[in-house]
Design brief:
5-stranded mixed sheet
Length: 173
């Protein structure tokens, strides 16, 4: 699993290649739903086991060319080079299914988790000026997924114009 500095470098490289060669590039921003409650209810050691389990589930859902990195806390970024919106949606659904179907901590009597995912895709039809803008779009889509009930994904390109702006500030992570 990549850490944040590696993610930043690789995402910049993939973004540059998408721009130069006119390729699609999708990003999935994955956030574990209600993770704070795991730490509060079962303690930090159980939370660490759940986090590791979810982190191990993600790479099995992506393509060989995709990159999975821990972003912060209970958040991950998945970089999908060459993936259009439809491919990104397929990968996102696999990630949701894998996280929801696993027992993430048998030691503590079993822990089920769900995740919310925001997707953003750079393409020749929908360009972003920078990697930061692409990540911010995925973050907006993530908040939309949370506002729509969690355990789902949303695509930035599918959001209405008003939802693309700052989303409700009270959407808890």
């Amino acid at each position: 699993m990549l850490n944040r500095p590696w993610l930043d470098r690789l995402l910049d490289r993939e973004f540059t290649q998408a721009v130069v060669f006119g390729r699609d590039l999708s990003v999935a921003h994955v956030d574990l739903d209600h993770f704070k409650g795991i730490n509060e209810r079962l303690g930090a050691p159980a939370g660490d086991r759940v986090l590791r389990s979810c982190a191990q589930a993600l790479p099995s859902c992506v393509r060989g060319s995709d990159l999975v990195a821990r972003f912060s806390g209970e958040e991950f970024i998945v970089v999908l080079p060459g993936a259009d919106r439809d491919i990104a949606k397929q990968v996102a659904q696999r990630m949701l299914d894998a996280i929801a179907s696993a027992d993430h901590d048998p030691e503590s009597g079993g822990v089920r988790m769900t995740a919310s995912i925001g997707l953003a895709t750079y393409s020749t039809k929908h360009r972003f000026p920078s990697t930061l803008a692409l990540l911010e779009a995925a973050d907006h889509a993530l908040y939309a997924a949370k506002l729509c009930g969690r355990n789902r994904f949303e695509c930035f390109a599918d959001l209405s114009g008003s939802a693309r702006g700052p989303l409700a500030a009270n959407a808890s992570r």
